[in-house]
Amino acid sequence: MTTPAFLSGDRVTLRPIEEEDLEFLQEWINDPRIWRAIGRRTPVNQAQEQEFFEEVVCGDETIDFLVDVDGTRVGIVGFNSIVWRARRAEIGYWLAPDHHEQGYGTEAAELVVAYGFDQLGFHRIEARVFEFNEPSQRLLESIGFSREGVHRDAWFADGEHQDTYWYGLLAGEWRNGRK
């Protein structure tokens, strides 16, 4: 049975990831359009996905949500690299390719960013994106993130080194941009 919504938007619902979602997660994390964009290098089998669920999703180091649209699983969004003392976290997300370019990622990211600032008290939310992932760069910029820096040749993909772009958004910028 699907767990109830934790955060709801106009079209997107964010809910806790449950064990019943692992097959969906494993299927899509092994798709090259996903693993390449998020920086994975190796395939994930069922046991590894179960371990991810038990150690990461059920742990205290990240905050993870399943992105749902009308009862259909479409991706995940959440926070990792959380530094509570500094009130900072990194946002991460992916959507199954069948659900790209429909605004679901933007709405999910907006919901989780608002949650981070308004409920968790974050002062800063960061993101990193590889140079070839232009859709993710556009998503971040559309909700107010600024590109703050570049780690040159920091990632190796498709036979060559790629730059990693770092983005940031401060709580005050978010609130001022929402008016």
Automatic annotation (TrEMBL):
<keyword id="KW-0808">Transferase</keyword>
<feature type="domain" description="N-acetyltransferase">
    <location>
        <begin position="12"/>
        <end position="172"/>
    </location>
</feature>
<dbReference type="InterPro" id="IPR016181">
    <property type="entry name" value="Acyl_CoA_acyltransferase"/>
</dbReference>
<dbReference type="InterPro" id="IPR051908">
    <property type="entry name" value="Ribosomal_N-acetyltransferase"/>
</dbReference>
<protein>
    <submittedName>
        <fullName>GNAT family N-acetyltransferase</fullName>
    </submittedName>
</protein>
<dbReference type="GO" id="GO:1990189">
    <property type="term" value="F:protein N-terminal-serine acetyltransferase activity"/>
</dbReference>
<dbReference type="GO" id="GO:0005737">
    <property type="term" value="C:cytoplasm"/>
</dbReference>
<dbReference type="GO" id="GO:0008999">
    <property type="term" value="F:protein-N-terminal-alanine acetyltransferase activity"/>
</dbReference>
<dbReference type="Pfam" id="PF13302">
    <property type="entry name" value="Acetyltransf_3"/>
</dbReference>
<dbReference type="InterPro" id="IPR000182">
    <property type="entry name" value="GNAT_dom"/>
</dbReference>
